[in-house]
């Protein structure tokens, strides 16, 4: 039996025997639990004067702790049981740049309107960093741009995408310069596949932001291979866009030992079907 609960009952009943009756146990069992606390903290909890039982100074400290502990447990039960359907709390989502900048916002907007008490924090970085964050359990859920095989991670496809070649329509463009994402980016893998299939070996300029890459192409400074999902109406007006027949998927990642509570389940369902 919980010795702190036993202590609380003994103080309330002012009797080991009465406390045993209230807790449906034996008086020797009550005595053993009190002695366990005394041994744990190397103190004396009760003192007796003419058969009257009083708490020692140290005993009063432990009793206050026991009462606070009892109150916290009551609040926990209230949160877990009395409001089982309330969606509230905080989640941390890590996303690679492409999905985070161009696709995640709509999901977050939908969730915010449906569940105003669910607060979602977002961290953007490249896919390799997201994978490490999942493995270290520093984020609740990750979204990356490439398939991975890792015994510590559950991976699920959530959205389809394709790669396109972009050049400026009207301005003379440097055909020997290609703007490309940094190593570790999921997009970088597919950019290299595209260059290989096109038989191109341009000068590569690494930029860790797809929006900036598109700005460079808009300015006629070179070309790029980007995700079709990153294109805006303005891009379609200004750029020459060539499909490359290179498909890819975005993947939702969770740690294999992650406890999927109701909040996280709602977020996952929204990302998979929203």
UniProtKB/TrEMBL annotation:
Query: May I ask which residue range the UniProt record assigns to the signal sequence?
Result: none
Q: Does the keyword DNA-binding apply?
A: yes
Name the InterPro entries for this protein. Answer: LysR_HTH_N, LysR_subst-bd, WH-like_DNA-bd_sf, WH_DNA-bd_sf
User: What keywords tag this UniProt record?
Assistant: DNA-binding, Transcription, Transcription regulation
Return the PROSITE patterns for the record: HTH_LYSR
Instruction: Determine the domain of life of the protein's source.
Output: Bacteria
Provide the HTH lysR-type domain boundaries: 1-56
SUPFAM superfamilies assigned: Periplasmic binding protein-like II (SSF53850), Winged helix' DNA-binding domain (SSF46785)
Work out whether the entry's keyword set contains Transcription regulation.
yes
What family does the database annotate?
Belongs to the LysR transcriptional regulatory family.
Protein name per UniProt: LysR family transcriptional regulator
Q: Which organism is it from?
A: Staphylococcus gallinarum
